[in-house]
Amino acid sequence: MEPFRFSLSRVLDYRRMSVEQLSVELSQVELARQARVERLHQLQRAEIDLLGDLGQESGPSTNGAGAVHTVGCLDALWSDIASEIGVIAAHQAQIDAIRERLTGARTATKALEKLQDSELEEFARENRLREQAESSETAALQYQRAHVVRR
Q: pTM higher than 0.90, yes or no?
């Protein structure tokens, strides 16, 4: 009896590899996004600190030069915050696109796996039928020999 061979096994292997690669890619982009979110939080904390300095009645930012410097720092900080928000949004769009591709790849893989399972079941069923036919033929031959010898 020949072993089962799925005709689309290479395609299935490729699909599985594609799912794995997309999963890795998704993880990498999610990690990059998370790092940017943490950076954004740092910038927002710095913004709160600078705004607090401006609101204090006494301190380095209450005199004219200090206040101008603090406002300049705030402007730079707001620019950095806007930039981080843009990068985070781009990462999120990339994550969404990868998830969509990953869902499609998983669906295609599952469809091929179901096809493989059904072909394997059919292969096993055909082998059982073949074995039963061979067994019946062998029994019939043995029966004929036994009756021919007696006569």
A: no
